[in-house]
């Protein structure tokens, strides 16, 4: 097993945000403040962008802009940035949030009127005990659940998605988590399951990154639950060879089909990818994952990519 990268080469290996090249990625970071202390957070060492850089990013990306932090709802400038993106005719304006203020109806309506088209809510656990443990908070689980329900009513059926960072503390609970989300948040647009990144807090806690082979049965169990519940889902950070039967849930396939290359620099093909029939559709594992564990868990697929894409088009990509 390879060791984690040093602090000095985090940016080089993991694509951590650097101001010079960020105009090519449709993300702006408007604050470093946060009211959670999530063990898996990838943001603590990411800089807040100067206004000129944020404006440049918005000016270049008219399809989608994601406004992030820290916790962006703690910034007094959030509504202004949403209005600026709308003025520049951005089609989708996403606010990434932990949901702390999503129970404030007047505030949510203000953001919607300013131009927010989707709220991407980090909801890291399905029990109060796990929520406290993972977020460094106490007693906020129930209020977050109610805030999300309120947000769903205000933002509408395609206005909310939930993101789960899949780390070693939650991986064995994935089917139960999926069941809770499906039961508790009717009308949710979709659930996104992202493999933990070796960024931010995880740099010093690399055991939080689960091995792909160990995560696979729990991940597939969760995807079966979501399929049965007819709740949309996508996955990110899991190469297609570990998603047999659910390959078209991968964001890599979606990006390949739509010619989107943002964030692909975070991933790379490994030697074991050479003989994989799905190489053209899969960006490979995350580079930080390969630095930690190598490529021994990759198992080249023999699936016909044309048949896979045909099936995906028939059933709907990303299970949406």
Overview of the structural elements:
- With 320 residues, the chain is of the alpha/beta class.
- It has one domain: Aldolase class I (TIM Barrel).
- Helix content is 35%, strand content 12%.
- It has helices at residues 10-14, 51-60, 78-87, 105-114, 128-135, 141-155, 174-184, 212-229, 251-258, 287-293, 305-315; strands spanning 27-29, 64-68, 92-97, 118-122, 160-166, 190-195, 232-236.
- Helix 4 crosses helix 6 (141-155) and helix 7 (174-184) runs parallel beside helix 8 (212-229).
- The model is unreliable at 1-20 (pLDDT under 50).
Can you describe this structure in just a few lines?
By secondary structure, the chain is an alpha/beta fold. The chain is 35% helix and 12% strand.
Features:
320 residues, alpha/beta, TIM Barrel, 11 helices, 7 strands, globular, disordered N terminus
In CATH, the topology is named TIM Barrel
- Strand adjacency order, main sheet: 1-2-3-4-5-6-7
User: Shape, please?
Assistant: globular
Q: Which structural class best describes the helix and strand composition?
A: alpha/beta
At CATH's second level, what is the architecture?
A: Alpha-Beta Barrel
Counted by DSSP, the helix tally is 11
Helix-strand blueprint:
Layout: H1 10-14, E1 27-29, H2 51-60, E2 64-68, H3 78-87, E3 92-97, H4 105-114, E4 118-122, H5 128-135, H6 141-155, E5 160-166, H7 174-184, E6 190-195, H8 212-229, E7 232-236, H9 251-258, H10 287-293, H11 305-315
Parallel strand pairs: 1-2, 2-3, 3-4, 4-5, 5-6, 6-7
Helix pairs in contact: 4-6, 7-8
